[in-house]
Fold this sequence. Notes:
Distance between the termini: 60 Å
Structural class: alpha/beta
Number of strands: 6
CATH class of the domain at 53-256: Alpha Beta
CATH superfamily of the domain at 53-256: Ribonuclease H-like superfamily/Ribonuclease H
Strand content: 5-15%
CATH architecture of the domain at 53-256: 2-Layer Sandwich
Radius of gyration: 23 Å
CATH topology of the domain at 53-256: Nucleotidyltransferase, domain 5
Shape: globular
Largest sheet: 6 strands, mixed
Helix content: 25-40%
Amino acid sequence: MAVALLGARGLFSQMQLALRTDSKHRINPSKGVRAALDDFRYLHKDIANRPTRLQEIVPLDPVAEKYHDASGFACGGVVIPNNTARSRNDECSPIVWRASFPEAIQKRLVSSQNPNGDINNSDLELVAGIMSNDAAAQNFDIQERTVYSNTDNTPTMFWMRKGSTTTGKAPAFLLRAQALHQRFHRYVHRIDYIKGEHNDISDIPSRKPHWSDEELLTYFNLHYPQSLPWKIWTPPPEMMSCMTSCLLRKTFPRESLLRQPKASSFIGAIGSNSAAAYPSIPFSKPAKTRFSYSKSMPEDTKRVPYPISGRPYVRHQSKMPYGLLAKRASVWGPKTPEPVWCTQF
């Protein structure tokens, strides 16, 4: 039911951790377990007013492509809409965003100078992925649409694909935030891995927090020109406070995530239909990254190249979260031999 009940898939981390305890007679109702049960009560009350729709489950052609990254002191990224996206602003411009981590978070980051820290780089990369989704939701109408992310951090990719982890550390709290955020904004999220050298577009906003807005926009318009000029989006304090609480392994109020974006006000020129297009045959399994040591059968999962629209910053072929199934044979299973009738005894 977690597939149909959007948001439930990200609430199992603390419950899975409780089931791994050594006690054979009872489950320890920790704060994390009680918070998860409270979230399920919230979903139970909300399900009648908020039914799950098909376009929240089946991935469609993405209306926005995102790149995000994180350093030890900031995170940032970009959101590039396609020609079917609907902006919440006056123009459907590409967005560059950034946010600095509080000093308390930076001091707890694991490094050669701080080997006893309890926050690692992958935790910050996961924060960047969630903040990137919020940047897309607040600037574009992605309700019942698909957004596509690119990351150079494999733990972030697999955490966001699976939706949960058997741990009580920061990823469990962050995945809960991602699940509630996705349920509230009603979008489909797909994420794939790219090499760091192909993710250079998100390096500047995550590693140059001291640059002014004018310097950042000048750099992007010069090195990554688009049909419309770049715009800067700054995450609201409520969102950054929520991410900080997650990194510190503290529960946060749902209201900090449930921020209703303003209605879409931009109406584009008359042209082709902007309705979301379904892929030919959506693949039922989540996207998989094939490695050289993979033992999966070739028929298990296939990739189709994502059509690149000539953007100068793209240096790789994106991997879509669904593939095209091969044409099925007209006959399923082995053929039954025709009976041979014997007329002589």
